[in-house]
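Database export, one record per block. Field names are fixed; values are copied verbatim from the stored entry.
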Amino acid sequence: MHVPDTPLSFPSRPDDLITARPEGLYCPPGDFYIDPWRPVDRAVITHAHSDHARTGHGHYLAHQDSRGTLQTRLGEIALQTVGYGEGIVHNGVRISLHPAGHVLGSAQVRLEHAGRVWVASGDYKTEPDGTNTPFEPVPCDTFITESTFGLPIYRWPTQEQLFRDIDAWWRANAEAGRASVLLCYAFGKAQRILHGVDASIGPIVVHGAVEPLNAVYRAAGVALPPTLRVTDPGVTPALLKRALVLAPPSAQGTPWMRRFGNYSDAFASGWMQLRGTRRRRNVDRGFVMSDHADWPGLQKAVAGTGAERVFVTHGSVAVMVRWLTENGLEAQGFKTEYGDEDVADAPAPTEQTPPQGPE
């Protein structure tokens, strides 16, 4: 069986609930889009990462826990929010949002019309992390899944192991009198790290891009330890030598980093599972951490839907399509303009581990 190296266009049938248009994923009977990448009148948003939530739409529908992050990132928008499982009907299509486990407020979009059920997953993670509502499989006829880490090599450590390693690295640096600078994305990963680390090791300092999102998580009831900005009173060089510092990858190599002196740095990303990625990032340490499903998680999620037809978007599409097809499902990849923060930091093609066959 031949599997294409690149995703194909979205194959459409007359009764499909979702089709592809230049603006994004479109629901013909409902006349709305899901995470459109060009301005449209009505948009259902799965979560507030910038590749899925963009400016310029006339009306937004999202989960209620996304309100703070959407407004922080997009400003004043015409936003309607609903809770998980709460259905609304638009042009005869019943729309409901269901937990995706990706970041705060992330949702899968369930569409029901004329006896058909489709689910567009957005981005998702199947292991609970304590900072958002855990992923729930949603039964459907057709499932649209991401495949950011759709290769058998991607298998994440447990939450317990991940934070045991981060804590040990931070503790050793603090005892040696040097700051621990952990590069991570400001929305999602930073809050997971804050929620999971042992805050008794030392003070925690965050970059200016991280703190506004911390405030949104705290307002939503997520337990995060106290955090400081480098400009806060009492933040001295002595304090910084014991601190865990959370900063976005864009801060690497900037003058902001100089104030930490002889620091140790690390990067938190699913791509750290690949050889050569830590070297490319030029950091002392890499922690394998992603807000996307790993290979077993993708398999589990698809099986949990009971879908017989699956569309696969961004990432290792060809391998995922092949695995689904070999397991008796009708599967097809297609192109989108989604990328997300993990994808933006993906290794160069020459550093990718060659695709492996299904396990």
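Remark 1: The CA atoms of residues 51 and 158 lie 27 Å apart.
Remark 2: Residues 159-287 form a domain with the Rossmann fold fold (CATH 3.40.50.10890).
End of record.
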